[in-house]
Structures are given as C-alpha cells and as structure tokens.
Amino acid sequence: MIPPIANRFVAGESPSEVLEHVRTLNTRNVAGICNLLGEHYDDPADATGDTYAYIGLIDEIADAGVDGCVSVKPSQIGLDLGQDVFDENLTKIVERGAERDVFVWVDMEDHTTTDATLDVYEPLVREHGGMGLCLQANLKRTREDVERLADAPGKVRIVKGAYDEPSEVAYKDKGRVDEVYLELIEYMFEHFEDGVAIGSHDPAVIARARQFHQEYGTPYEIQMLTGVRTDAQYELAAAGVEVYQYVPYGQKWASYFYRRVRERKENLLFAVRAILS
C-alpha cells in the first residue's frame, strides 16, 4: 500500500486504482494519462511483462469508458535490450491502442535514447496514428526533431526537460530553455494540424499557449503531473481548456515519489507536513 505521504503524486499500485483516479478527474473535466512506473530493464521478462500490462490497461480503459490514455517509457519496454525489442513491444501496445481507440504516448528519456526512440516512433505513428511523443526543449536538436514530425499524424508533447544533460547537447541556462520552449510551441501552433501538447506547470507558458491558440487557431492541451498545481488544472478545465493529468501508478512508486520531492521545494514541504501530521 502506498503511504499517505506519497499518494499525492502516485495514484495507486493497481490498474483499478489508477482507473478510479481517472474517473475522479473526469468529474472535473480533466483526462488522465496513465503511466505504469518502471524503467531501464535489463531482463527481457520485465519488458515483456510491462508490455502486456499496458495492453491490459488499454483494454480496461476502453471497457471502463473513462477519458484516459497511456504513456510508456522506451527503456521500460525493451530499449535497453535493443531497438528491435523496443520496436516489437511498442508495436504490440500501439496496435492494441488502435484497436480499442486508446491513445498511446511515448515518453522521452535522456539524449542517448532520442534517435532510437524517434526511429521506432515515426513509422508507427505514420502507419497507425493515435500516438504522441514527448520532446525536450533543453536539447539543442529538438527544433529539427519537431520539424521532422510536423507533417506526421499524432501529437508532440513539449516539456522543458528533466535530465541533467551535458552542455554539448543541451542548453543549461534556464532563461534560454524558457525562450526555446516558447519558440518551439509557437512553431507547432503554426505548423501542426493535430494539435499541440503543452507539458508545463508554468503559468507564463500556459498564458502564451492560449495566445498562440487564439492567433493560429490550432487546438491544444495542457498536461500536468498528479499532485502539482491540481487546483490550476481544474480551473483551466472549467474555463474550457483541454487538460490532461499525467498519472503514475504501480509498485515502483518509491523512486518516483522521491524524485518529485527532490525537484521542487513545495513538494518537500508537503512531504514534511505529511510526516509531522
């Protein structure tokens, strides 16, 4: 059982718990992006197991009729074991998503995995649609990657980037990353037909996305994490903005929770208050 100190950021350990969380979100007009926690497997059985867990989750989302989708990490379904393993397992997930009309997001990991992830994702999205990919604004290559996917079906989620990448491949100055982020999403509003996904909690970014939407008319959605600015998520949804909450779940919750606590002082204060109470 996940202790109260962690359940702000993680929906539970089982598919039934994550689906119940998504049902609750849906009552506030927020959709859920369900992520089974796990990454960097070196055992093929682990990658296969999580692949079929996602296939089962897709079926449960479709059967339950909730407004939700799934998001997978490449290293969770075999990228560390070989690009062919990742390709085979992601194809199984995407094909089931297409059969059941459940959208499949592919997360992006550190810069060493970008080429392999794109090379597997692009032919799948062009064949099946119903997919999205996360790209990171702090990487210097991302403008070219965004342009590469401009005419592909599916969506791209832009985030600022959570990995400590070397300066040779990434912008290190926060102000520069913020500038590049806005440049990237403006390009997407201008050139992407299937919409723009804004992965950010930054009020300034969200305000600019609204302005770009008004200027270009391109549909967009805001994506935020479970437990972070939840009231803002509900307020945006109430104002008619399409909002998705990224909802992690699973037995590997501890490392994810401690990452959330370390990255923002507000999360650390929450954890301390939970312990004291």
UniProtKB/TrEMBL annotation:
InterPro entries per UniProt: FAD-linked_oxidoreductase-like, PRODH_bac_arc, Proline_DH_dom, Proline_oxidase
Domain Proline dehydrogenase: 19-268
Pathway participation: Amino-acid degradation; L-proline degradation into L-glutamate; L-glutamate from L-proline: step 1/2
EC number in record: 1.5.5.2
Pfam families (alphabetical): Pro_dh
UniProt-listed GO biological process terms: L-proline catabolic process to L-glutamate
Enzyme class at the top of the EC tree: oxidoreductase
Keyword Protease: no
Protein's recorded name: proline dehydrogenase
Organism, as annotated: Natrarchaeobaculum sulfurireducens
